[in-house]
Amino acid sequence: MTMIQRYGAGPNQIDGMSGQALRETFMLEALFTAGEIAFAYTHVDRMIVGGAVPTETPLSFGAGDELGTEHFFTAREMGIANLGGAGWAEVDGTRHPLANRDVLYVGRGSRAVTLGSADPGRPARFYMNSVPAGADIPTRLIPRSEAKVVEMGDPARANVRSLAMYIHPEVAPSCLLLMGITDPAPGSVWNTMPPHLHERRMEAYCYFDLAAEHRVMHFMGRPDNTRHLVVADGDVVLSPAWSIHMGAGTGPYAFVWGMTGENQAYWDFTPVPVKELR
Which CATH architecture has domain 2-276? Predict the structure, then answer.
């Protein structure tokens, strides 16, 4: 297991950043490597973002050495989304099968997690968000069929999308983590359009199901001072509470969203009219 660091930045710092500096500060690349597990400890609300692709040998973690705690989950909870082939996650000896787009919530106090693929030739692709937690909530599997789906958008604006809530008070409770998956409809390219701010929560975007030749143009920054990031399949964007977040793809794609902060009120945000963007 590897654990890299991301320290974040404030809105007054992005003016002096090159494109590469923006990527090194607000993006995570190469999280999904066959046979490996990788984490990034971000200082954006202390969210940990991870990726794991088990092949012939399962991958395990659970020690708290990198966190200064006895175990990884001593004071944390986690969501694990399978974005690849069929797999499984074993938490403290209990195995949970995870099909494509199933999500497992792992509660505070868990000791060890092992991740495996049903077929090493078509490995699972596990994406993980972990945040500090102050409550003990039982580990729970949330199959794709149990997610709450909300339809949003307008064909005339090319922003029709389906938002599936997994770790959410209306579906599966947690302490502070929210997690779900959004799919733009065929012919729509925009996500989270119009953009918005939620000053009380940060968010991480993991873009997936994007063909190798396509990219998503992810826009960030303050409404009056925007920047963009060019994102490939499997890349993760860290969106601080002060930043807008929206994207447009050159081909079909989906993304996992994960949030943490002061509350779990998904609709606690401030829309930003497109005409005000600069």
Answer: Sandwich (2.60)
